[in-house]
Design brief:
84 residues; alpha+beta; 32% strand
């Protein structure tokens, strides 16, 4: 089973590492829950979200249409639990 990792931060809190912290925590939680993969979507122009996805271990897989707009699809397979 896969789950999407969405996040949004108010502009006043951008560039504090909070998005990355939340994404990494979500990946760790998904792994503990036994999910097989996580995905995330963003617009091509959203470089901040793309950096968060990269830092959380997700990799660019494809460009898809979502909500009538072109989005980038990132994915991370969670084949095995990470060692603590």
């Amino acid at each position: 089973m896969a789950v999407e990792l969405p996040w949004a931060l108010v502009p006043e809190r951008w560039n504090e590492g909070l998005g990355t912290e939340a994404a990494v925590a979500a990946v760790e939680t998904a792994r503990r829950l036994g999910l097989s993969e996580v995905v995330a979507l963003t617009l091509r122009t959203n470089t901040a979200s793309r950096r968060v996805m990269d830092k959380a271990g997700l990799r660019l897989m494809d460009e898809i249409e979502h909500a009538g707009l072109p989005h980038l699809l990132y994915r991370l397979k969670l084949d095995a639990p990470e060692a603590p």
